[in-house]
Fold these 2 entries.
Entry 1:
Amino acid sequence: MIRDVLVVARNDLRRVLRQRETWIWTFAMPLVFFYFFTAIQGGSSGTDHPKDPLTLVVPDAGGVLVDELERRLQGLDYEVARVAEFAPDAPRPARVVEVPAGFDAAVLAGRETSVRLLRPEGGNATELDRFRVSRAAFGVLADVVTNAARRREQTPESFAELAAWPRALSLDVRPAGTRVRIPSGKEQSIPGTLVMFTLVLLLTSGAMGSLLERRQGLTRRLASAPLSRGAIVLGKWCGVYGLGLLQIAYAAAAGTLFFGLEWGPDAWVVALVLCAWAAFVSSLALLFANLVATEGQVIGLGVLASNLLAALGGCWWPIEVTPRWMQALGGQLPSGATMNALHRLMIFQSGPSSALPALAYLTSGALLLGFVAARRFRFA
């Protein structure tokens, strides 16, 4: 029976790999999405990350308030370069903060004045820069108001005295796991894209092969061969599973070699989770292929289901940024359970035992869906 299963699986996998669309969605598109989502979500900014360069443009000599603003920007992980103006032919830096002339005098006189952040790109990185620069500027303004209320002059000593005051409210920030460094965008985007593309590929190309064989009469002819029903169904499942493993192996290698992704100290458990995920989706694809009737249904429903599970399961963005109800829903979905296990293993380094719930969920789901798919399997 094992030989019969391998013959059916090998023939199915060979047939699917002859299709141009399979090669595009297996080998080309994951790399495009790796780069796209990694660029959108940005890089890391942890303790081992160098400070971000920032140019502070002060057209005059400045004063104590400008000096205090510069000090606060440096304390927010900026490497500040202070200049009076730009040379006409000099390239513009990525981050520029412009302070108007007479800034100190305007603030102390109560006149409205503005500090401008100039940054060409958009996205999360720009929003983070806007937050940090605003924090520095409003912090200086708050200390100016406090010094004025205490009838103290605006001097470096008065600002240092305020900085030494005990805080009535403190914020204790610690990592959620054993890892100290903040995870970079690729550690969210690459596993998430890998999980999503396994869904897309198996629910479309994997299911399409079984549907076309049934419509063309090939499955009916296979039923007349000296093969048991169990060997045929298991061989079909193994063909889809082999396609999923091929894409996972390629995507994992590409993420490591081209993007420098680190899979954590428990990479073998990560591999088990991804294999269990491929098994779950393979059973779902085999069941799906025996429920639909047309190629359009395979493509439409397969892409729709893949995108819904990917979005709600946290493949496109960290699930923590979504509303509470979506976090609760995502945790119950197979895609969400897979992403949660990958985050625990790779980002928080919680140990192999943290992946046991996801492994149990995916394995039992694969067996249950596989059983239903075998019962619903049609030769014609």
Note: The longest strand covers residues 52-57.
Entry 2:
Amino acid sequence: MITAINSEVDYKAALAEIEQLIDHNVRAGTPEGDGLNLLTLLVQDYEQKRIEIEAPDPIEAIKFRMEQMNLMPRDLVPLIGSRSKVSEVLSRKRPLTLSMARALHKGLRIPAKALLQEQFLFDLGEEAVEWERFPIREMVARGWIKDKVTDVRHQAKDVMHRFFAPLGKGWAPNALYKQTHYYLRSARQMDFYALAAWNARVCLRVLQTPPSVKFEPSVLTLEFMHELAHLSTLSDGPRHAIEYLDKIGVSLVVEPHLPETYIDGAAILAAPDRPVVALTIRHDRIDNFWFVLMHELIHISRHLKADLTAIYDDLDVEDTTNAQECEADHLAGEALIPDVEWRKSPASSLRNPDAVKHLASRLRIHPAIVAGRIRHQRKSYRVLNRLVGQGKVRRLFSEPV
């Protein structure tokens, strides 16, 4: 049996052997079944490497996969949008958008690296932006856009130009297509035009009201975050957190998420020296507010840099594949409830309100934070409902701050 594929000859031989094994209806768990699984993995690995080596750009990668799968251009319509768009993409008259790349990656199993090569995306300009896809009507309804918009299709470009103008030329293409500039933690399909608009709104608010001092990264330590967590005991602690962070040069912005974005918060560099924590309060609970805040502060202190200027988080999703997300999850928990305190507390093993309140009192944090830790650790989100502060955060930010 073939144990490695190093050439086209090996590749074809492996395909023939796979076909033979399938014809013999081999069973899982048998030596033949294990061999079939191994050959399949070897073939998939070789195909991915071959695409990356042989495809100088995403279009060649797409054509290579089409040839492999005996696809016609019409077969790409569900992934790209229309026959005319397919024709323009394959003839290099229309740039591949991020949404197209994601659909092709999922539908044709083309490696994302092949579709999102930096040299291909680098020169994308405003001609690549589909301006009417921004959620303009929702932005008008929220007061983000003051223009009167009667015809989105024809007014979109001019309206969005004025909206983005304070952020500088080329902001929209970079926000939409520069894959290296952000990381997204999510398992759901996102509307990247809505996400870019939300990011812009956050940055515009920060640029209009910058923090009172310059940010000094060395100040943002776990000890600082422990002290910040003490504000959770106040009835309006989340609002006090804005002033507390402003004193070290970090802006805290609360901006509800736009439809089809599903994020809880983000760490953003609005400018090289202006870090921002942006929270959506998608889940209106005290425990959620403080965990998301700490999570994004860890990103600011350890992960944001010149080539990674935004991290968006859907914290309903476990992300064990990304070291930065794992670190932010762990240290956010440590900032709120140090592991050493957790292990020696009855709350670590009991779902008891008295145990919750005892640990919260000792750490000088809101009981909701302890209750939230118990619920998350046990993956049981129906316990201690009365202690997590449901419905007590969003009302504090009924007006933008």
Note: The chain is about 50% helix and 5% strand.
